[in-house]
């Protein structure tokens, strides 16, 4: 527990420090996270990170996450064109490796690269638009995790998804949403937002972050169970890997994008 707390403190200081300083250092930090998370996903399936198609995936992930930086300071790049280029290179790798790399391999890599790259790029984009929104989403995510843990330990009895994560309870999940709503209302009264213009909008975005954040956590747990691993990595002592720490956020950000809160 001591190691877990120390890791959380150090990680929090670095993450929040870059978040507050400026969008550029934050974008660089998030790009590093994205590359590590992509590496962890490759490792889950036993894909070598030194393979040609893996290297192409790394370049794509980093480029996509840094896209907001390019758009603001260098030149605007189409995310769709980047996606098409990735797909072409991956299909070409089947030919050049004489079928040593299969369609299943590139399908897994393509989905992983797109999911990691696109989701993290939304985080960097949001930082360029509004610091408070990124901080709000992150706080609600942290509050949801803590609320689920403490409420679940206190009154949790009914299992939420025992086949995936046996320690999570329905009571903990509901309690997490309630705690998230309370904290969101307090933040809304203290700090004005350029994106959230109404109380109804506040409730909507909070429910999305809290409910779908928990779903994202369960989805990542299901992936790890499929590949029979406990953690996605070991880079964060006591917490696992980067994918473990950002699983909920990666799931939520695309949904917020669909509802025009991000992008």
UniProtKB/TrEMBL annotation:
Enzyme class: transferase
PROSITE patterns membership: CDS
Location in the cell: Cell membrane
Matches recorded under InterPro entries: PC_trans (IPR000374)
UniProt entry keywords in alphabetical sequence: Cell membrane, Lipid biosynthesis, Lipid metabolism, Membrane, Nucleotidyltransferase, Phospholipid biosynthesis, Phospholipid metabolism, Transferase, Transmembrane, Transmembrane helix
Membrane topology, as annotated: Multi-pass membrane protein
Membrane-spanning intervals of the chain: 6-39, 76-96, 108-126, 132-151, 172-190, 196-215
Catalysed reactions, semicolon-separated: a 1,2-diacyl-sn-glycero-3-phosphate + CTP + H(+) = a CDP-1,2-diacyl-sn-glycerol + diphosphate
Pfam families: CTP_transf_1
One GO term describing the cellular component: plasma membrane
Name of the protein: Phosphatidate cytidylyltransferase
Species of provenance: Terrilactibacillus tamarindi
